[in-house]
Each structure stands twice: as C-alpha cells, then as structure tokens.
Design a protein that fits this description.
With about 200 residues, the protein is α/β, with parallel strands linked by helices. The chain is built from seven helices and seven strands, in the order E-H-E-H-E-H-E-H-E-H-E-E-H-H. It has a single domain, classed as Formyl transferase, N-terminal domain (Rossmann fold), CATH 3.40.50.170. The chain has a seven-stranded mixed beta sheet, sandwiched between helices. Helix 1 runs parallel beside helix 6 and helix 3 runs parallel beside helix 4.
C-alpha cells in the first residue's frame, strides 16, 4: 500500500478531506501518520481516524535547521512514500527538502506562479485579480516555486473578501490534493521523472 505522512499547522481541513478519501477501499493510498509544528487543532482529525501523530514544536528561525533535523527523524521512522504539507505554515529547511523531494508536496491557494507566499488570497484581492486558483506543487528550497503538479482557476467574484474567496478555493485545493496523491500512488506521477524535469 502507498503510504502518506501529512504535516499541518492549523485546523487541518485538507488533512480531513484526505483522510476521508483514503478510508475508501478503492483509494490507492493510506495516511499513516500526521505531524504538526505545534498543538494544532487539526490533530483532532488524526485522533478521530485512529491515526498516530507527532508534534515537533517550532522553536524560532534561529533553530530552523535543528527543527528540520527532528522533523526528518520523525518522518524517517515512518518511511512514507509521500509527505504532504497541508497548511504547514513553515518553510521546511533544505535538509527536509533534500531528504524527501520530489516526494514532498504542498497545496497553495493561488494559481502559481501568481501570488506565492503566506498571503496569497489577500495578495490576489489587493492586486485586483479577476481570477486566482489553487495549486499542488513539489516543495523545493524556494517559496512556492517547485514544479506544479496540478492547478485550477477560481474566479474572484464582486464583493469577495479574503474569507469568502478562500472558502471557495479550499474545495478545489482539496480535490486537487486528493487527485495528486492518487496519481502518485498509481504511478501516474513518477518521482524520478519529476526530479529529472
């Protein structure tokens, strides 16, 4: 069975969607562990689904490399086939990227390369964009700059604010994430080919 580790920082809505998809017998992947950089609310989803979890507390930018080393140790103990950053609000250090990429993926609430960074929805609105979107990418050492695996446009509607627009992006983000995990699990997405591209 193709195995997945998921890393979160917050409520874990993408995590929950993936856990629900993975519980179907015909879904070709299983989440085996959930990690977080703090005592995140989304860890409750792991508990509800009987999923092991771990926390590697963020200790500040000065200790970023040590944090990454501890994160790598926790992940290595589970040897997942794929690591999903699902709302992990930290740039993982190069040691984590080199250990796992291109089997390290992230979701982003914009149609990359448009609006990278932590405030993508706000930035799209501030720019007066008429469309934004959702993307799933391979994590690299940049900010939302890795190879794009899937993306879809989402319209910005008159009267949208950051909350309403983000709420319309989230279901698209979840659907894309579940499909990308499925494609990795079935071999449709080949890590070696991604690394070579």
């Amino acid at each position: 069975m193709f195995t997945v580790a998921v890393l979160i920082s917050g409520a874990g809505s993408n995590l929950r969607a993936l856990l629900e998809a993975a519980r179907h017998p015909d879904f070709p992947a299983r989440v085996i562990v959930v990690g977080a950089d703090r005592e995140a609310a989304g860890l409750a989803h792991a508990e509800e689904f009987g999923m092991p979890s771990f926390v590697v507390p963020w200790r500040g930018a000065a200790e970023r490399e040590a944090w990454g080393d501890e994160l790598n140790e926790q992940l290595a103990a589970w040897s997942p086939d794929l690591v999903v950053l699902s709302g992990l609000m930290r740039l993982v250090p190069p040691a984590v990227v080199s250990a796992w990429a291109p089997r390290l993926i992230n979701t982003h609430p914009a149609h990359l390369p448009e609006f990278p960074g932590a405030h993508a929805v706000r930035d799209a609105l501030a720019a007066g964009a008429t469309t934004t979107g959702a993307s799933v990418i391979v994590v690299d050492d940049g900010v939302d700059s890795g190879p794009i695996l899937a993306q879809e446009r989402v319209a910005v509607l008159p009267g949208d604010d950051e909350t309403t627009l983000h709420e319309r992006i989230k279901p698209v983000e979840r659907r894309l994430l579940i499909d990308v995990v499925r494609r990795f699990a079935t071999g449709e997405l080949d890590p070696a080919a991604i690394a070579a591209s």
